[in-house]
Structures are given as structure tokens and as C-alpha cells.
Amino acid sequence: MDAHPIPAAHRIRIAGSDAVFDCADGDTLLRAAQRAGLGFPYECNVGSCGNCKFELVEGALQMAWEQAPGWSDKDRTRKRYLGCQAQPLGACSVKLRLDPRCAPVHRPTRGDARLLARRAITHDISEFRFALALAQRFEPGQYALAHLDGVVGARAWSMSNAPIDDNADGAVWEFQVRRLAGGKGSDALFDALQIGQRIGIDGPYGMAWLRRAAPRDILCLAGGSGLAPMVSIARGAMAEPQLAQRRLHFLYGARTPADVCGQELLRALPGWGERLDYQAVVSDAAARDGGWSGAVGYLHQAALERFGERLAQMEIYFAGPPAMANATQRMLLDAGVPMAQVHFDQFY
Ligand SMILES: Cc1cc2nc3c(=O)[nH]c(=O)nc-3n(C[C@H](O)[C@H](O)[C@H](O)COP(=O)(O)OP(=O)(O)OC[C@H]3O[C@@H](n4cnc5c(N)ncnc54)[C@H](O)[C@@H]3O)c2cc1C
Ligand code: FES
């Protein structure tokens, strides 16, 4: 018997084009297309945003998560599926528009990662350091899919380190994860996973990566658990000779003063106080009563008040929950910021 059977792969054709790729058993169409270097459009990779929809022309497939919020009854009747959840059962032909902007900078791979260390950042955010079995590259600002024992479906976590931290014999990827009360992924990561144990990691994914060639100062807006990718962008930008003339402003939006974090991580970077600064804003109006002397309000308002018309001259990255991301996107549009200068992944 073959000890390492090769998983069956199904041939996927994109109707009306020459594009063809193979999707292994158990993989999804979106991820297999990305592994093949194709620009299959997507955002969250976890069934929520609906940006990865395609139409099935021929063949059969199953949805890994039938209740995915991004998949409607109307989609079902029209044979539209989510690329991040669709698993082919044989050869398929599909209709979708490839977008070169969604093609991977580094083709994602799947492998094991061993937990090396963890430390608390706030009362509910901790940093987890993993060693990957493979020397897989990523860009600052990207995310990975984590497969945890006993948890159905993948969880998306953004890397918080800069990729220059890579080891020769593998790669170190760090994540800063907020514990969600009752969350299955949170429980498995915070309570069950021990140092030395392994999880499955698939990545990198995401389009909100650091643009090195952009000739503009950088603004990073991080809301709540959106800390990690913005810290990664800051770490990458401060280490990058090509960006040595750029300033980076980092704004962190928290609910209460107890949730504020990130400054200590940035203080450790070269450029701190010269071309790197940090400001926190809390949304809880009662914060002043507790002695908070910093800004109070919403993150997008704080950014607008501080930078105003200068926003249109900046390269802007943001990450956080959908409410924060939507408000920020609207504010930037109203402020006349060209969307080509704006990069984000919403945290569903
Ligand atoms: C692009 C992106 C980057 C993110 N980066 C970070 C980060 O850096 N730090 C951080 O704290 N959080 C991040 N998140 C949020 C994170 O992925 C989780 O949603 C959050 O940690 C809560 O997960 P949970 O398992 O604890 O909660 P749960 O409520 O158990 O799970 C919520 C998540 O799991 C998915 N899910 C639930 N059930 C299923 C199922 N049956 N099959 C498939 N999927 C399922 C949902 O789509 C949702 O994403 C990110 C999200 C996205 C989309
Ligand atoms: S629903 Fe598939 S990428 Fe968001």
C-alpha cells in the first residue's frame, strides 16, 4: 500500500478563457486557483463577504459550509457558489472574471505550524508565535487560514510580524488574536493548544499588503483585533530601505482604555518618534470619567480630524470589524481619497 497517496485532483476550467487549474480533493476552488497563481477574486476566505462568487457551468461540487452567511437561497437557485467554500466532486467548468489584482504575490501553500510561544497583549488579545514546516513567504498585512483540531472550518488570522523574521529552515509567523467569548476557534487556540503542538496553516492570503513602490506617507488604522496586520505593515515599512523617506502614522481604535494596545510594539521599531508615531482613540464616552486623557470618539473620525485634506496624499491601510471598516471606507471616499491608495481586509 502506498504510505503517501497523492490526493485526487479535479480539473477546473474557466469558461470562455484558456485558464485551467487543478483542485485537490478537499481543497476549495478559490484556494486551488490561488495556489495556481490565478487572480480568483475574494476577500475574507471564510464564507462571509460573498466576493468569491462564481457560476457553475458544468460538473458537480459541494459546499464545505452550507450555512455560510455569504451564500443566499437566490445564489443556490442560480447555481452560484462561494469559491472559498466550494469543493469540486469531479471536473468542473465555471464562469467568473479573473482579476489580475487578486493574483497572489506568493502562492499560498498548506502545511503544519508548531506553537513556539504566546504572550498576553491586553486582557483579551494574545500573541501566538508559530514555526512553519515550510519556508513560505508572505507580505506585511496578509493573513493565513488556521485549521484547529475539533474546529469546523478555517479561521482567518493576520500575521503581525514582518516576513524578514523568517528562519532558514522554515518560517516564523506570529498572530495577535482577540479571544471571542464562546468562539470555537478562540477556545481551541487560547485554552486547548499547548506549546509544541501543531495546527494546520494555509497561506498567505489577502490583498492589503504593504505597497513598497508607493511614493506617499503611510496611515495605518487598526480597530480592535485589526491590530496584527497594521503592526505587520509598520514593522515591514520601518525595515524597508525603499520606504526610508516615508512617515508612518498609526491610529488604534479601542472601545475602552483597557483595550488600548500597540504602542509598546511600535516603540521597539527603528524610526519611532522620528518617522513613526502612534495615537489611540477610545469610543466609550465614559472613558474620561475613569481618567482617560487621550482622544475619545471613533477611529475614522479621529483620522479625519487629524489629517483632513492630507488623507488624499497618503497610502492608507486599515483593518478591523465590518462596522469600523465600512465607516472608514465611507469617510475616505467622502474625503476624496483615490481608492487605489486604500487597502483593507474586513474581519468578519
Ligand atoms: C481576513 C481576516 C483576517 C482576520 N484577522 C484576525 C486577526 O488578526 N486577529 C483576530 O483576532 N481575528 C481576526 N479575524 C477574525 C477571526 O477570523 C475570527 O472570526 C475570530 O477570531 C472569531 O473566531 P472564533 O472561532 O473564536 O469564533 P466563531 O464564532 O466560532 O467563528 C467565527 C468565524 O468562523 C467562521 N466559521 C464559523 N463556523 C464555520 C463553519 N462551520 N465552517 C466554516 N467557517 C466557519 C466564520 O465565518 C467566522 O469567520 C480575521 C478575519 C478575517 C476575515
Ligand atoms: S465569502 Fe468567500 S471570500 Fe468571502
Short summary:
The protein is α/β, with parallel strands linked by helices and 348 residues long.
- Please estimate the helix content: 10-25%
Oligomer: single chain
Strand percentage: 25-35%
Q: In order across it, which strands form the biggest sheet? A: 11-10-13-8-9-12
Structural class: alpha/beta
Describe this structure in words.
- This protein has three domains: about 10-100, Roll (Ubiquitin-like (UB roll)), CATH 3.10.20.30; about 110-205, Elongation Factor Tu (Ef-tu), domain 3 (Beta Barrel), CATH 2.40.30; about 215-345, Nucleotide-binding domain of ferredoxin-NADP reductase (FNR) module (Rossmann fold, 3-Layer(aba) Sandwich), CATH 3.40.50.80.
- Helices cover about 20% and strands about 30% of the residues.
- It has seven helices and 19 strands.
- The protein has helices at about 30-35, 75, 185-190, 225-240, 265, 300-305, 320-335; strands at about 10-15, 20-25, 55-60, 60-65, 80, 85-90, 90-95, 110-120, 125-130, 145, 155-160, 170-180, 200-205, 215-225, 250-255, 275-280, 295, 315-320, 340-345.
- The model has no long low-confidence stretch (mean pLDDT about 95).
- The protein binds flavin-adenine dinucleotide and FE2/S2 (inorganic) cluster.
- FE2/S2 (inorganic) cluster binds near residues 42 and 47.
